Amino acid sequence: MIANISSSSSIKRANAQAPVSAFQAFCLSSVRVMQHLLRNPMTLMGSSVVLLLILVAAFAPLIATHDPIVQNLSNALQAPSTAHWFGTDEYGRDVFSRLVYGSRITLYIIGLVTIIVGPIGLLVGTISGYFGGFVDALFMRITDIFISFPSLVLALAFIAALGPGLEHAVIAIALTSWPPIARLARAETLSLRNADFVVAVQLQGASSSRIIFRHIMPMCMSSVIIRLTMNMASIILTAAALGFLGLGAQAPLPEWGAMISTGRRYMLECWWLVAVPGATIMLVSLAFNLLGDGLRDVLDPRSE
Question: What is the Cα–Cα distance from 53 to 30, expressed in whole angstroms?
């Protein structure tokens, strides 16, 4: 009698805690992910830097102390001071303000490349892994061709064909970033296509497209999200390299790599022109790597 009462009360508590809708389930899972991320100091540090980057980009007009494009040659190459926190460049533009507005360009590149790379890599990988045979061989040989070249060299080749510019740089980086996502999605699909739930859906008469989009792709999403997050550091470095070579964002846009390129001529006397944007690139890249490590610990059950 007492055991029945206790079991019924535990069932009621479980039912009370169970989500009643998909949105509530999503909110509960998001809270659990955030709680796990906050327990790791390194992940917390990376998440804080990424959040700070987003806030700086969102409120750039309020944070910047000067116009990032307006030139003032009378203030050229001034050292860091209370008037100019990170000094000025060769045209008298405030370096701090240019860094602040440069965060918008960095997030723009990261966001567009991720939006392009994620769906393409996931689609190619799941189709290749599910069908196998000739389809798998064809897609994987194309993927191997892209992977066989260093990403920066391949991006330079695409930029040479498309021409310099911010949008062309995004396209070039995206074309060099999707193959690792495709190979990861293929590996996940190979381990899932013979699973019991997939076989059960096949026996019910579900089409291949329904199985791929409704059952296999959601199972691959966690690994793909982790890889995309960790790829953001390489996207930042590649974008900075293209900007340094004058093939990315064009002047007078305050892109971090282009700021290093223009400041290298004065780096011996005016160290802040190179050190400040270089340190920013390093810090943001490290933050995305730390965030990716934390997400892997949360979303990948094999990391436990």
Answer: 21
